[in-house]
Amino acid sequence: MFFSSSQPLVALDIGAHSVKLAQLKKGRKGFELVNFGMIQLPEDTVLDGELENPQALADALRNLLKSEKIKNKNAVIGISGQSVIIKKISVPLMSEEELIEMIREEAEQYIPFDIDEVHLDFAIVKAEGEVPVEKGATNEERQMDVIIVAVRKEVIQKYTDVFKEIGMKVKVVDLSAFALENAFELNYEVDRDAAIALVNIGGSMTNINIMEAGVTAFSRDITIGGSTISEEIQKNMSIGFKEAEKIKLGMIPREMNRADIIAQVKDAVEFICGELRKTFDMYEKTSDMKVSKVYLSGGSCLLEGIDLLIHQNLKMEVEVVNSFRNVYCNSKNFDEQYIEAMGPIAAIPVGLALRSINDK
Fold it and tell me: For the chain, which domains are there?
């Protein structure tokens, strides 16, 4: 959706449990991985996409930037959660200048926040004919599809203040759902005749981007993720959350019944799939297409067999993505096994790293 090659940025994907960093550079053969790293965050640093502990994030960022020897002071970050509103609307074909003038009025109908308390942006995703260049060339008989994005100013300000404290500048604020699209388009062939779902299951947030005929048609963030599975194990086994996290990833103590653990994992994944199905139904009510395939990414891909469980629940094809599939990774600089393991986890930071200072 937004590929750039000039003035690369340091991409930082700030999640509930960790911060992931990526840097790409574009050469003659395509994109090359320059840096990739991650660091854990203290509990409750970020909740539902909102920053709750700025100092903890600042400390983590300093440590991560130091360990990766980052000199670039310009960053791109991804935003997701309940403070983000994404809405696709159809309006008469008009110039971008006219669209800018009317977008605020249109946005007020769909945004549950005071319009003065949000940052607004938009992107034209489809138009019936050429978008007029000159003002006044509006065509009422033809339509254009526009995605409106609104993010609460307070949420962005908290993040930018942290970066200012550590001596960096946030040059681009992207949406995590759109970063998924960019990473996908870099690594996979886009099917222009189908509707697919890009699903990134993080720790406490799941980002969903439904692409129809190659463009974003519906997007939603839901506040459930891999922690849902751990919490199910924690509740049923009467143990701590950290121990439940280890069990989720296969480190099951001998005294525990493996069949019971598997049943709890299945129950939690079924709950997540219920939310995915609900999202697909919301999209399909306004489209002639049905979601035919899920491309899965996120930290929860570390759970062995999660793709099969989702396939069994949704009754559709599920593929775990490799975000480095078309990215050159020099074996002298990166451990090949580590990069392969990180492929599904790196979707959002790789998508963010494709942005540049000059981007909209």
Answer: 189-320 (3.30.420.40)
